[in-house]
Amino acid sequence: SDSDSDSDSDSDSNSNSNSSSMKHIHPEANFTITSSAKCIIVIEKEGIYTRLSEDKFYHHYPCILITGKGYPDIATRALVYVLHRTLVDEHGCPLPIYGLADCNPFGVSVLSTYYRGGKR
User: Fold this and answer.
1) pLDDT of the residue at 117
2) Which of 39, 46, 83, 107 would you call most buried, defined as having the most Cβ atoms within 10 angstroms of its Cβ?
3) HEC profile of 1-51
4) Neighbours of 113 (CB within 10 A)
5) Other C-beta atoms lying within 10 Å of the C-beta of residue 97
6) How many Å apart are CA 45 and CA 43, to the nearest integer?
7) Dihedral sign (CA 62, 50, 23, 113)
């Protein structure tokens, strides 16, 4: 499905076996998510995401890059939520989420959608 391919292509992480964070997503899940990332970076613009991915920014600073290509769909918002609640840092705290967006009302609105959700 289209949302499945978006979720797969919209995130990158630097994972290895020495990961400091590992947790089951759901009691019935038969897999775990591991990452040595220090944060999650939500990026408004696909072009910025592409540039950071091509430059392998996550090798310079261990992070998870995610973009919703503008206003995020429900699957992308859910992915950010699950990663934030599942992955923990070396102190046992959830990974922080940082937003990278234009400094204009549209950029603030996009990041607000991740925080508060869309219109109901």
Assistant:
1) 81
2) 83
3) CHHHHHHHHCEECCCCCCCCEEEECCCCCCCEEEECCCEEEEECCHHHHHH
4) 19
5) 18
6) 6
7) positive
Residue with tokens 């947790």, as numbered in its chain: 23
Q: Which residues of the chain have pLDDT under 50?
A: 1-22
Condensed to tens digits (0 to 9), the pLDDT of residues 68-103 reads 999 999 999 999 998 998 898 888 899 999 999 999
Measured in whole angstroms, the distance separating CA 14 from the mean position of its chain's CA atoms is 12
Write down the pLDDT at residue 31. Answer: 72
User: Cα separation of 56 and 60, whole Å?
Assistant: 7
How long a stretch of residues is the chain? Answer: 120
Q: Kindly report the pTM of this predicted structure.
A: 0.73
